[in-house]
Each structure stands twice: as C-alpha cells, then as structure tokens.
Specification:
Blueprint: H1 6-23, H2 35-46, H3 53-60, H4 64-76, E1 80-85, E2 88-96, H5 98-122, H6 124-149
Helix pairs in contact: 2-4, 3-4, 5-6
C-alpha cells in the first residue's frame, strides 16, 4: 500500500462528508424545489449579469445536461427566464424572475442558517479563514481534475 496512514485520511473524508451534510441543507419535506434548483437559482440571482448554462455548469461542477434539466424545471415554475443571445440563436442567458426573487426571499434563511450558526459559533475571523482554506482546497482539486481530463 502506498499510504500507511490511509485510515487517517478515511477518517478525514468521513468528517468532510459529515460537515457537508450538516452545512448544506436538503430541501424540506413537501418543498416543491430541490437543493440543486436552489443552488442554481441563488447563483443566477447573485450574478452581476445574466449567466449562461455553461457558466453555471462550471460554477456548480456539474454537466450541462444537469443544468438543462434544472433550467427546464425552474422555468416551468416561472422562477427563471431564458433570454436569447442575439449573436447566437442557439444560446441563451438566464434571468431570475420576480417570482423567483420571491421564492429566494421565502427560503434563503432556512438554507443558509447552518452557515449563520457556524459564523456565530466560530467568530468572524475564523469563519473567514475557514472559507479561505476551502477556496484554496477547491482550486487545488479543480486543477487536478483539469489535469486528469487532459
């Protein structure tokens, strides 16, 4: 075996999964919107300008087919609109509708509450440090995935 301390790495992976399951809430029972739909809706809402499905696929780390399915579901609920790109008739950008903004206002606290609790419990500085480390870790892993695809 390459790594004699693999059991310690497995324990860390378990902690990471546990953290993820506590920090990222699933949709409440009876909700009519999934966690992935919420993620896409939040990302489209806080983008400075309308986003493309390709941009969302990269940002969310999923395939474009997943984005297409989510877009169709959110459009059917009238939470987002597709705006055609004038220079390319096959392309479109996404815009959150007024109904979508109401839905975000209705549910954001439930989904973000674990992070508010974490921030309060850790304090501002340690909370920011945690997310700086997470950002750095995500960059390292993204670079490795890019290498593997080449």
């Amino acid at each position: 075996m390459k790594d004699k301390n693999w059991i310690e790495i497995v324990k860390k992976q378990t902690e990471l999964r546990h953290f993820g399951s506590m920090a990222i809430r699933k949709a409440q029972k009876g909700e009519h919107i999934s966690a992935q739909e919420i993620d896409l809706l939040f990302r489209a809402a806080y983008a400075r300008e309308a986003v493309t499905p390709g941009q969302l696929a990269v940002a969310m780390g999923v395939r474009k087919t997943v984005i297409s399915r989510l877009v169709e579901q959110l459009a059917a609920k009238q939470y987002i609109e597709k705006e055609p790109v004038k220079t390319d008739k096959r392309s479109y950008k996404l815009r959150v509708t007024d109904e979508g903004k109401k839905e975000i206002d209705r549910m954001y606290y439930y989904y973000l509450n674990p992070l508010y609790v974490l921030k309060e419990g850790m304090g501002e500085d340690r909370f920011e440090e945690l997310f700086e480390l997470i950002f750095e870790a995500n960059q390292i892993l993204a670079e490795e995935q890019t290498k593997e695809k080449e």
